[in-house]
Amino acid sequence: MKKLSTLLFFICLSVGVFAQTPKGFNYQSVLRDASGEVVSNTVIGVQFKLRKTTATGAVTYTETHTPTTNAYGVFALVVGQGTSSADFSSIDWAADTYFLEVGVDMSGGTSYTNMGTSQLWSVPYALQAKYVENGDDLGSHTATKNMQTAGYWVSNDGDDEGLFINAEGRVTTSEKLVLGSNVNLGTNWINADGTNGKGIKFDSTGSVITSGNVGIGETTPQASLDVVDIAVIGNTTVGTQSTSQNASSQKDLGFVTSPWMYTKAIEATDERGSSSTLITLGNDGNFGSSDEIHFVTDGASQLDVSKDLVNVTDRLAVGGNIDVGGILNPTSGNVIFGDYSNTGNLSNLSDKNVIIGSQAAEAAQSGGNNVVIGYFAGYNLNGSSNVIIGAGAGTSGAAFSNKLYIRDLLYGEFDNDLLQVKGALEVDDDIQTDGEITIDQDGDDLMAAGAKKAVEIISVIINPSGTINSNVTNSSGITSSLSGNTYTVSYSGHFSSPPAVNITCIAASTSNIRIPTITLLGSGKVEFRVASSGGTSKTDAGAVLHIIGRR
Questions:
Q1: Which residue did the predictor score with more confidence, 406 or 3?
Q2: 85-91: long-range pairs with CB below 8 Å, 24+
Q3: Is the pTM of this model over 0.85?
């Protein structure tokens, strides 16, 4: 009977320098018979079994070969490349210890003689390195030693990209870092130079802790939080949050307390999809209402801004200009300032109205291009192009347009070029007009500057025939006549003493010079004659008389 002896060589594989790790490991042996002679040039049968944990453990893999020995009895095989019903590549070499059992049939059949079992050491475990190739999944492992990249990149294709770890341990990425799972930083910090206690870190509750300023859109932040653009904030508390603000019914609305907050804009909760806006600065126990901005100073409400109203509790001090483009209805150009019990009727105004004053035009029915200034002024406004100034001015209730009301003192009609003074008028200079002047139409006094008693002014035009010219409108109670060459103008009952009379002649021709001469002046009448430059009496010129005296 032939005796089989074998010599097993484990050829170490250098897996780190090949493009691909082989699926197997080498086995080489010399076959001899029972007398020790080499069995050369013979087809034989070989069986390999891999046992787990111990030399007699469970068989996890079996394969067979039919090699031919060479002239020296040597045959060489690759374990993992034989005939088998199992998958050699599915063996988890890192999971356990493995043993190789070798069986040989020298006749080339399948009646294998067990030649012994040996533990596999380092060579086959190089197969585990195949999982590192081309970014394959390493599975779940615990490293027992440090991994050294020796200045090379870790990538999926071997190029200089992916992750790079320098000598100081700093990690550089060539692209965005996308994490497929959670990263546990422990108590370590994230920063630019690896220094402990600097940058950001996370505590066990997930809160973010920073040691310096945070800039959003800002490369050199100047504050703990420095935001360049608009920040959309649902609920922010700066400083100590009050008990009232912490209530769930109020907290969700988004309140801001002292000391300071620097921002371009505050956008309330759900503002983008809701009509409700509430921004409150300060705390007075009153958080305002929907669609309102509420400012509090020293525990008291100072300013409330809502849809149609700006309400200042105290006074409004302005150090510069105020540029107002419209308050109630900016699209039509109305500008309205005031305190109102009911603003409903203000919407009846059309456009280009300026309304200033408490309850001014509060019950307006219509109108455009009006100026209304004063408490209760133009209360029932119904018309256009009016100027109404003063408390209670222009409140008749009737419809009117193109009118001027200044309290009860002045009345005017813009379309008729009319201005009326209701009361005494004090004048310390000349009055010039290109229209008519109605004086003392209702019997009130016209006061000259410095006068202690009532002064009356009568202006009349006397025709050459001695009659009063009909264009004079204030000649009530005045009569005139011509007797011979003497003109007489009677104003009995108007003056308490002789008045001052000024007479100017109106000649029919510029070549004729006419000179008036007063022949009698009394408290009730004045008589005068008209003569040529040569002293000849004439009755061919009109005369304008201005009579001024104390009543």
A1: 406
A2: 86/60, 86/61, 86/62, 88/23, 88/24, 88/61, 88/63, 89/23, 91/50, 91/60, 91/61, 91/127
A3: no
Instruction: Report whether pLDDT(36) > 90.
Output: no
- For residue 216, list its beta bridge partners: 227
Structural tokens at position 322: 């105020």
Report whether 383 contacts 396 (CB < 8 A): no
CA neighbours closer than 13 Å in the CB half-sphere of residue 362: 14
Question: How far from 80 is each of 18, 167, 343, 429, CA to CA, in Å?
Answer: 19, 40, 93, 127
Distance CA(300)–CA(283), nearest Å, equals 8
Chain mean pLDDT for the chain? 74
- Pair 28, 9: CB distance under 8 Å: yes
CA dist., res. 137 & res. 127, Å (int): 14
CA distance 64 to 250: 79
Residue 253: pLDDT band by 50, 70, 90 thresholds?
very low
In DSSP terms, which residues pair with 65 in a beta bridge? 46
List of residues 6+ apart from 483 with CB closer than 8 A:
466
Q: What is the DSSP string of 160-178?
A: S-SEEE-TT--EEESS---
- The predicted structure's pLDDT at residue 53: 93
pLDDT bucket at 3, cuts 50 / 70 / 90: very low
DSSP 447-461: EETT-SS-EEEEEEE
**% of the chain residues with pLDDT over 90:** 22
Q: What is the DSSP letter of 98?
A: E
What pLDDT is attached to residue 249?
A: 40
Phi-psi region of 535 (alpha: psi -120 to 50; beta: other; left: phi over 0): left
Do residues 202 and 221 lie in contact, with contact meaning Cβ atoms separated by under 8 Å? no
**Which range is least confidently modeled, 171-180, 339-348, 479-488, 521-530?**
171-180
CB 66 within 8 A of CB 44: yes
Q: Is the pLDDT of residue 433 over 70?
A: no
How does residue 309 score in pLDDT terms, banded at 50, 70 and 90? Answer: low
Nearest by Cα to 237 from 294, 277, 282: 282
* Tokens at 348, concatenated: 């009846």
Torsion of CA 473, 478, 484, 485, to 10 degrees: -60
Strand partners, 144: none
Tokens of 534: 């040569």
C-alpha distances in angstroms, 404 versus 3, 198, 425?
Answer: 138, 74, 17
- In tens, the pLDDT along 355-387 reads 998 889 988 999 999 999 998 888 889 999 999
C-alpha–C-alpha distance, residues 505 and 485, integer Å: 14
